[in-house]
Amino acid sequence: MGITTKVIIPNQPERGQGYNPFAGVDRQKLSVLLDWVKLDVKWRQKVAGSSSFWFYTLLTPKEWLNDTHLEWFRSDIICMMDDVFTQMWTAKYSEFLDSPANPDGSACWISIPRRHIVIWDSDVVYTKDEEIAKTVKPIAHMLSYMLHMLSPGEDRELYTVDFTHERVSQSRVPQNKQSGDCRVYFVKYIECHALGMPFPSHDMCDKNIKTIRSQMATEIFVETNINGTEKRLYKHLNVYD
Length: 241
Fold this sequence. Notes:
The chain has helices spanning 27-37, 51-59, 67-70, 83-93, 129-150, 182-194, 209-224; strands spanning 5-7, 78-80, 107-111, 116-120, 164-167. By secondary structure, the chain is α/β, with parallel strands linked by helices. It is globular.
């Protein structure tokens, strides 16, 4: 799975009221972003690894997002696992079951109390249910194993069986019909769920993907003061706490 999320605070309808994830792009903010990108003298050359190329990828329809784009969506509601952690976790999992690398992915809502994984797929017809089951098995098994080992003795028996899973039907999840924007859809699935709102198919669609990408890029740039590939420092987070 390309993106893994965990619910920290139960999803409530009243959360996030006042913010519309499909409000459209603020043209003034977009102009500020584009002016900043052009400060890079090599921005037209699209140099891989540069901040200007990072934003170019995020802004451009059909350009595949990478894991560094997804890691900026931090909040008190969802935990986004860093790419380094998920890579190490997958590598360690080879001691249990084979989990070959997969460039595709889906957004997952993992409910620990229910021991259940809900999968939101932007192209349901692309992958068979059997393939989804095989792909999600490492996560379903590892989560149960991890909770079993970390739980106090009296609770360990609650986590002796793999997490169950379901993939939501395409009639309930907006579908990405043009190739290249699936990860944008994944982020929007997670964002809507965190805000306690349904997935609006009339807003979340390929026709609006340029506007959706522009809104995402400008909000990351303006609201978080993150400049693309700039190194992040989370002084308040200690990995050993």
